UniProtKB/TrEMBL annotation:
This is TonB-dependent receptor. One of its GO terms (cellular component) is cell outer membrane. Gene3D superfamilies: Carboxypeptidase-like, regulatory domain, TonB-dependent receptor, plug domain. SUPFAM superfamilies: Carboxypeptidase regulatory domain-like, Porins. It comes from the Bacteria.
Amino acid sequence: MMKDHNFWKRKGVFSVLLVCLLGSTNAGYASDPEHAMTSGGTTGTLGVNLQQQQQRITIRGNIMDTKSEPLAGVHVILKGDNSVATVSDLNGDYTIQVPSKNVSLEFIYMGMATQEQRVGSRQIINVIMQEDENLLEEVVVVGFGTQKKESVVGSISTIRPASLQKGTSRSLSNNLIGQLSGVIGSQRSGEPGYDGASFFIRGISTFNGNNNPLILVDGVERSLDNIDPAEIESFSILKDAAASAVYGVRGANGVILINTKRGKIGKPSVDIRFEQGITFLGKTPDYIGAYDYASLVNAIAKEEGNQIPYSQEDLEKYRTGSDPDLYPDVNWIDAITKKFGTNSRVNLDVTGGSDILRYSLVGSYYNTRGIMDRDKSYEWDNSDRLNRFSLRSNVDVNITPTTLLRVNIGGFLQDHTLSAGKKSTDGNYASLDEIFQTAFTTSPIAHPTRYSTGEIPVVANRANPWAWLTQTGYQTRKESSLETLFSIEQDLSMLVKGLKIKGLFSFDRYSASGVRRSKNPTYYQPANGRNPDGTLNLHMLGNGDEYLDYSSYGEYGTNSTYTEFSANYANTFGKHGVQGMFMYDMRNLDTGDKQPFRFMGIAGRFSYTFDNRYVTEFNFGYNGSENFAKGKRYGFFPSVALGWIVSEEKFMEPVRNVLSKLKLRGSYGLVGNDCIGATRGAVRFPYITTIDEVSGYTFGMDGNVYIGGMQEGLAGSPDLTWEKVKKLNIGVEVGILNTINLTVDFFQDKRYDIFMQRVNVPSSTGFTNNPYANYGKTTNKGVELSLEMNKRFSKDFEVMAQATMTYAKSRIDEIDEPVTVIGTNRARTGRPIGQIYGYIDEGLFTEDDFADVANGILKEGIPVPQFSNNIRPGDIKYKDVNNDGIINALDQSPIGGTWDPMLVYGFGLNMRYKNIDFGFFLQGNGKTYRIIGSGVKTFIPGTGANTKEGNIYSNYQDRWTPENPSQNVFWPRLSSTINENNTQPSTWWVRNMSMLRVKSIELGYSFSKKSLLPHFISNARLFVACSNPFEFSKFKMWDPELDTSTGAKYPIPRVVSFGFNLSF
């Protein structure tokens, strides 16, 4: 058995003398609660005579976890006599002497369920320890420290790290929505590298500043999507003032705390996860084909009394596809996309160590090839793809028994390649979303992707989507990051019990560079016929480039340093528990500008617990920002919280077996937001008056003398400061049968001093630009719910279920609006942030509304739209809200709701039966709206060869026509010219985008250890999974979660994957 040489260092001279007195190094002692083990691993008690020693029974055994890894440091205790105990060694082995066979042993290990084994006639007792989910959650990460879960009185959401690894997306943010109460958001795009979710903690509370939460990785401000889920050990979201006040001016939007994995005592443990996925195009709009398109153009021309542009012979050629050069039928979505893409992920996790040194090494590789097509005749590859390598190494070293050194080093390398996307007409470059937009708005008969003879056609002043994607070159963006952290913690319990001090320093470096090589293809006008020799009649629009041009290059980088000094105190005096924290921190961010970003502050926390029943806590942050004038840079942000653990009261004892937990808590406090622009750095030093250069002014009487000059730019204000939020939170936590846990929080945020540019400033003040001020006010309130159930029905069957719901509704209480808007239906005051405005439709015009249909003259008394002078029956009719007889911008009103959802919910279920496991997760949202009317604006058929523009969804038959004058149609009157009346934002086009998505499904099989042929494999699991297989929504035209009102967006892909987990 391995000897524990560090035992002597921990126990000192007293332990040596004790062994000498007992006369053998195989004797030992135990001091509760440490239950220390002697070098031989056997136990004894003081005052035990030799005869009693000889009567004892020696029990030996080995202790492992569910992965068949040995567990070191497990306490083995004789039940009823804590003086007889031992601790397992690094191999998981233990030896203990018991007085008789009629006793039981208890096996205790942090994070594991305590086991009890009856000795009986056994002399060898091997134990497999099972994880205890309740114990694993006893400690919660909070601001600048940890707390026991029972003593937490702030509103904090946590999630198991394994849940964050579901799905194949690179972006961690996509796995948060619906899994954590308090998180509201949506995934807005499926494009690799840009597929991160847009999310907020408890919704949107400011209409002008930044709404993004503060994200801290190992205590340092970093990007959420730059960390691989495999690196995470704990994940917490701080939502109320009690949890976030210590962050002061940075805590108003909530705080996300991520701690990365650390080493554990034991032999090296290696875990490998591999996943290979096949990605398919997500839900996109369905457009009509060439025959239907040409037929529709003819029908519209006939309705307007015009000559039909396509003969029956033309229609037949479109239908049969007999001449695809002159009568093409192009599905542009199919033209720019492949049948499928691929992605793969590999994670390697190595942990181990001793009681002196522990280490964790996590390496990850992620690769994805998207669904965009490429031209394989070129040597260069411009298909959308992303490669990412990340590595993180964390090392803990006990320099002395009371001194802990931690060193964290992590980083990633990433390259992202996609089409250069160069237009032929203006030289602008396009994102993939723009290419989708062009594909969605190009008609199927405009021209083929390229002619059979190789020429590439394009309509003048437009783009050929296929050529734009595949013929214009490539661009590559490379990113890298180095993240370092060094901390040293000193336990001063020898001076003051429970006191620890800590120093931390971090240096991060981020670099990004981009290379673009592009060319302009040679384009031709669409052919309008054939020459006598049968060749296409083509006209070149201009000479293109034969080769890619020289590389264009750009780069960007940031450096940041962070320093922190803190003192933590925790002690118990009988029924009284006291915790305290005080810290100082400073951050410097250099973006290459001459003016870096700096932050400095102090924070503190005091918590008192009485008899594990009553908790009170006071937090404060005193910090500031360089962005404001002297005297306005620092602020004090306090919070107070109270908690009552009702279930610990004596009067609850009769029902404690059923109502295992009942806790009430409340908090109130003040936090701030110094990110007063849309992004940090969008508004710098607004207290300084600026002077701007102007092109010039005329001088003299005749106005012929022109002189350059200067003028006042922004009028600074020395009184400007950060936004402030008063947060109120009331929560209740309920546990039932030690199996079901329910948490409900009610919250209200009152935000004021919102930074905005004033609107109602008289011109007589002489300001060139209206000044900024802390003027706005908002209220955001709502409720959130989290429900969990963990139940092991037998050793073979267990179930874990979770459900979350978050509802948050904002209201603008004060905002500076134009005088002409104040008090009208167009006012934003009193409305939610992001409220959609438009016209209220009253159906479609009928012939009865017209005095003269042919000339579009309405009857007297019917409001006249000012958007078009070509109003006809079938056009949208709007409500005259202000009763002035006309329809214009003054008639706009709040319609629908907000773009971002007010409601987000999720439900997940995981179960295991013997070696088979199955799980799924559902994510949904509600009260989210879009106006989709711009789709009609792109349908402008025209009649000439160079004016074949626009496209239309496949539901074109659901439209108003003279033969179908229904009010219950999707499309109002369609026309061959732009009809601005029918494209206005209105209730006609408002759609509720609420949806329920099946986010992930996974089925796995774990092999038993006996079936694993290689002896060094401790665990093996195979699985198949599916991400985003389908969604349920009343809106059927495209993925309702996308950030688009036309469907023209890189769709969220559907992924089928398979993989394995191996442990060694």
